[in-house]
Amino acid sequence: MILFTKLFLAHLIGDFLLQPTRWVIHKEAHKIRSKYLYLHILVHFVLTMILLWNLSLWFWVVLLILSHYLIDVAKLYINPWFKNKSIPFFIDQFLHLLVIYACAYTTDVVTHTLTLVQQIDWSLVTAIVFVGFPSSIIMTKLLEGMANKIALDHKSLPNAGKYIGIIERLFVFVFMIMGRWEVIGLLITAKSVFRFNDLKESNSRKLTEYILIGTLLSFGLAIIAGIIYKGGLL
């Protein structure tokens, strides 16, 4: 486990802390000819060797750095194919993490992976999935009649309310299973403060009631999921 942690730490430092934005821009412009691509790989190599501090692992470090280079080059060339630039970014990070995992547990990668899968709390996974998009759809159906009577705010970001709701339910669920009810109260207060100006400017009783019902319903679904999970009913 400590080997994986050190390799992952080296990756985080090399990819995020020690890679300036100008390096990224230069790499995207010049791709495989970019000098910063090779400087970036060198930084990863040095960081990994320092954190491992074990010359006997040099072969795995070279293999890891070579794979990092190939993944980064592939990302530079497929990046223009995607309109949403976050997709190649997350694919790139997932592949790096996969290689780090394979190198860290190379002697028993299959056994270790099977052990991790067997330890998954499927009830927890199911509850987390439920408070995400399924809860959003349930709320949309329940509030559909009210939503038709509320004037749309075209200044809002697309789907912002949906994602805010998902994040707040995840927070409520996590804090609930941790037994930190006071933090849930703080979340309700914080949301009320952020919404205060909108409600004050709109001066709409319907909008106020709609937001209040939506908030209570959102928190309620997360709390119900938490009660079912903690009660072992899932």
UniProtKB/TrEMBL annotation:
The chain crosses the membrane at residues 36-53, 90-110, 122-143, 170-190, 210-229. Keywords: Membrane, Transmembrane, Transmembrane helix. InterPro entries: Phage_phiKZ_Orf197. It comes from the Bacteria. This is DUF3307 domain-containing protein. It comes from Arenibacter nanhaiticus.
